[in-house]
Structure formats: C-alpha cells, structure tokens
Write a structure and sequence with these properties.
By secondary structure, this protein is mainly alpha-helical. The chain is built from five helices and no strands.
Amino acid sequence: MRKIWIGAAVFVVTCIAGAVWGYKLDLTSDKWASWVQAVGSIGAILAAAGVVVSQHELELARVRRESAAKLQQMYEAAFQIVGGAAQIGAKAASWAGNQGQLMADLEPVHYELSVLVDALHKIDVMKFDRFIAIEAALVAKVAGGRLLRSLAHAIASPGMKNEDREHLLTAIGDRNAELKQRAQALDAIIQELKKSNS
C-alpha cells in the first residue's frame, strides 16, 4: 500500500513539473491536449501496474498465511500423537508399578499405544521446517516402538520376577521420558508459531 502512495506522489509531482514546463514554453491548446493525453495514458498504465503489484502482494501474503497455518496444524497433530503416547506410557508405568496388577491387564494399554505408534509412523517429517521437530518425531517413533515391545514382553510374561518387573519399569520410564521430552519440544514450536502468526 505504501508503494502505491509513493507512486501516486511521484506521478502528481511529475504532472506539476510538466505543467510548469508547458507554461514556460507557452504551448498551444492542441499541444496541451496531446501532452495531457500522453501523461494521462502513462498514469493509467502506472496505476494498472500498481494494482497488479498490489494484488500480487496480497496473494503472496494469503499463501504465506495458509502455508503457516498448515504447518502449525501438522505440528499440532504430531504433538497430540506424541503427547498421547507419553500419557499412555505414564499409564503403563503406574500400572506395571502396582504389584497387585497382573501384567495381562496391560493389554488395553498395549492396544492404545499400538494405534498411536502406527500414527507416529504416518507422520511425514520431511514436511517439517525445523530440525528439532524432525528429531522429535523420529525419536518418538523409536521410543514408542520400544515401549510397545516392552509392554508386549510384560504381557507375554505373566509370572515376572520382581527384578524383571523393576527392569521393565525402568525401561517404560525411560521411553516415557523420551516421549514427554519430544512432546515438550513440539509444544514449544507450536507456541512459537502461534506468536509469530498472530
């Protein structure tokens, strides 16, 4: 918009300078008409070019906003999936840590996590524009898969000894910590995007 005003000001100044120049040369009315027509044609061409440039800039701004919104949606989807996997990991840790619980009772948790791990593998990290987001999604895929295997092992070993149960709890806790950390990294990116988009 500022460019349009600058262009209009330059055009007005040029017209005034032309009128002063024509007055000093003592032009006849026929020559004045020719000059006014020429200047008017140039002004119309410049105005049309200004409108085209303005429309192009508005279109570019719209495309940038849409692109930023899509990127933010991808980050939010990844955050929801990784955060959900972390919550299921916390549920598995508390369940496995309770001595009264049977390991077979972890089966519903295993199914929930398997759905999220499958969703993690469908995240196209190549569409992310930040290394930390790519790293967060890839590490979450690995951590989710390892957590899933730990739960499958626990379910397959109903008579687990206490030391094996402790080892399992440590493994679940480690995977869960990785998932939480990656969810926090994605959340930080989302908050940054929200600030820059507003």
